[in-house]
Amino acid sequence: MNKWRITWGENSWTDSDVLGAHLVAVADLLEQDSWTSISPWTGPKSLAAWIVVLVASQGRDLDETIAEVYSAPAADVIAALTTVD
Fold it and tell me: What is this structure's pTM?
């Protein structure tokens, strides 16, 4: 998986912050279990799933977090993902 940073609001995570539980939660949200499908670079569904999982892992309600991310402007979702040098 390519190195990445996801920033949402005041919070930022990199691929080195990811736990096994995050991987499984993203795969569960996507209802897919492949390395390709869980990469945040794959497309909008995988990126949104990563944002949801990372934000919800801080104690936020999952359904509220899904609603927040899904109702955000597309530009905000796209801008959340950047590369790490």
Answer: 0.94
